[in-house]
């Protein structure tokens, strides 16, 4: 009987995790390709197909660090059981569903982090204040850093003395250099490590000083040359090509940064209790994200592409470049983030470069206030929901 209850809870927790991953795939991965659709560089259905594939690949190859933080780094002294994981995931999913239904900007990272802290406290665990400070500092820096980078990017693209045949390829070079240093689980790594980057792999093959820097510069130079050639042939075609490439790497990053919000609560269940490798759990999350992107993204892409079309190509690029940079930094540090938070901040920063057109201070205030409310409320709901489950079903 005990075994039957255990496996029933495993199934329930897994299904809940899949639903959460589906919601993330449907809602959090649309912005990267919206500018390309708005510029008629790619069709909506093709973009939705690519988003699903790329976000799922990002989840599989880059999602491990954030998954571990959400699953084991937020509470000390207790293990997240299957029942606790279900309570945390249900709380986060309910908050995301509320945001979709009401139109309020509910950040998935805030809801999931708060829910797991609440569940962990309900289990009798101790807060990990050092981790909270690190996450809170990163979250607080996201709006000014994303907005600031977007402002600088938009300013560069608007300068008359910097032709688009130079400005756009320069941004491509920055993206290429970061791609060269993005750590992936599919790249052979040195002993004791599970991930490596293209630049790191080059240093393994040629163990000489400065090889990592040379490899990064080489990828950046190739990226610059490719986009410059396209923009010299046709500025419009070159920008559209860059929008598709940029959308691809940002969608990949969004999968890596978001999957941990769905798989993190299941870390202890899958890896400690079931003894399965982390790749299996990430596969569950990737499948959910893939399904959500393919089934839910087309409708959202049509809506968001209209919004980005109104922003214009320059402001769209300015919003996405910081998104890619910050997402990769968060993945490297293992910090759960709200991808929409990054993009919204980037849109605001790009708007300020054009004289604050379309930037509503009231909307910014409402958005920030709702983010704080989401974090605090999700802690309380997660705490209470687990207590209800425990009362009805008993500890598990």
From TrEMBL:
Primary localization class, coarse: membrane
Membrane topology: Multi-pass membrane protein
Cellular-component GO terms for this entry: membrane
UniProt keyword Electron transport present: no
GO biological process: phosphate ion transmembrane transport
InterPro entries: Phos_transporter
Domain of life: Archaea
Keywords: Membrane, Phosphate transport, Transmembrane, Transmembrane helix, Transport
Gene Ontology terms for molecular function: phosphate transmembrane transporter activity
The family this protein is said to belong to: Belongs to the inorganic phosphate transporter (PiT) (TC 2.A.20) family.
Protein name: Phosphate transporter
Organism: Haloarcula nitratireducens
């Amino acid at each position: 009987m005990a075994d039957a209850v255990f496996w029933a809870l495993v199934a329930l927790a897994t299904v809940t995790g899949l639903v959460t991953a589906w919601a993330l795939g449907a809602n959090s991965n649309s912005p990267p390709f919206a500018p390309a659709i708005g510029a008629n560089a790619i069709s909506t259905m093709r973009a939705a197909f690519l988003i699903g594939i790329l976000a799922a690949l990002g989840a599989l190859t880059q999602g491990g660090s954030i998954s571990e933080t959400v699953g084991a780094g937020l509470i000390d002294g207790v293990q997240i059981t299957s029942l606790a994981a279900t309570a945390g995931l249900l709380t986060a999913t309910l908050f995301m569903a509320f945001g979709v239904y009401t139109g309020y900007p509910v950040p998935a990272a805030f809801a999931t982090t708060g829910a797991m802290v609440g569940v962990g406290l309900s289990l009798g665990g101790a807060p990990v204040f050092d981790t909270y400070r690190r996450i809170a500092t990163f979250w607080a820096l996201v709006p000014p850093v994303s907005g600031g980078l977007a402002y600088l990017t938009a300013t560069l693209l608007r300068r008359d003395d910097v032709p688009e045949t130079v400005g756009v390829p320069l941004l491509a070079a920055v993206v290429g250099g970061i791609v060269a240093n993005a750590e992936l689980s599919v790249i052979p790594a040195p002993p004791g490590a599970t991930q490596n980057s293209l630049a790191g792999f080059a240093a393994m093959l040629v163990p000489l000083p400065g090889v990592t820097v040379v490899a990064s510069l080489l990828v950046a130079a190739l990226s610059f040359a490719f986009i410059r050639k396209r923009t010299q042939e046709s500025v419009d075609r070159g920008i559209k090509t860059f929008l598709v490439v940029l959308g691809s790497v940002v969608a990949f990053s969004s999968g890596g940064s978001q999957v941990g919000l769905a798989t993190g609560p299941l870390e202890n269940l899958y890896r400690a209790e079931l003894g399965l490798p982390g790749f299996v759990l990430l596969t569950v999350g990737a499948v959910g994200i893939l399904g959500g992107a393919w089934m839910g993204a087309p409708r959202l892409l049509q809506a968001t592409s209209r919004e980005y079309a109104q922003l214009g190509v320059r402001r769209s690029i300015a919003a996405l470049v910081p998104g890619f940079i910050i997402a990769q930094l968060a993945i490297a540090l293992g910090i759960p983030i709200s991808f929409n938070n990054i993009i919204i901040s980037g849109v605001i920063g790009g708007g300020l470069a054009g004289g604050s057109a379309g930037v509503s201070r009231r909307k910014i205030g409402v958005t920030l206030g709702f983010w704080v409310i989401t974090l605090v409320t999700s802690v309380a709901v997660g705490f209470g929901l687990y207590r209800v489950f425990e009362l009805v079903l008993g500890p598990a």
